[in-house]
Amino acid sequence: MPKKRKNRGGRHKGDKGKEPMVYCDNCGKLVPRSKAVRVTVPYSPVPGDLARELEKQGAIVPRYYVTKTYCINCAIYLGILKVRSEDERKRKIASARPLVRRETVAAPPATKPAQTQPPTQPTQQGNEGGAQTKS
Asked: 26, 34, 29, 33: which is closest to 80 by C-alpha?
């Protein structure tokens, strides 16, 4: 009897059964939600050069974040995904973002510790700066 392969289809469904379908925002194709590529991009209704001038004058330019959903074909066509060779696909590679190591570091105290010695008065030791002091 042939062995059933688990990871076929390029999805993250696992053993969940059916899952909702979403539409591609570029071509309108129905794609399983786990297979779709989601991209969040900033969108501003004001053109870039005008926005820079307005920000210099102190105006607040709105910037909205729009999430778009693409099928695999459109994501490759738009350059969001790159076509990889078979051995590159099999290799487990880290994402493009660098991994952040979260080490346990002792946090600095919230308040300054109390000083044990009172502040000392500056003493006059001769005529260091060349200026004479009156007493």
From this structure: 26
Q: Model-level pTM greater than 0.85?
A: no
Cβ contact 25:41 at 8 Å? no
Task: Read off the DSSP letter of residue 132.
Answer: -
User: Is 69 within 8 Å of 37 (Cβ atoms)?
Assistant: yes
- Amino acid making up residue 67: T
Tokens at residue 17, please? 């059964």
| Cα angle, residue 94 at apex, residues 88 and 99 outer, rounded to 5° | 165
The torsion angles phi and psi of 87, rounded to 5 degrees, stand at -70, -30
**pLDDT digits 0-9 by tens, 32-83:** 998 999 999 999 999 989 999 999 999 999 999 999 999 999 999 999 999 9
Q: Report strand pairing: 64-70 vs 30-32.
A: unpaired
Q: What is the rounded CA–CA span in Å between residue 117 and residue 98? A: 46
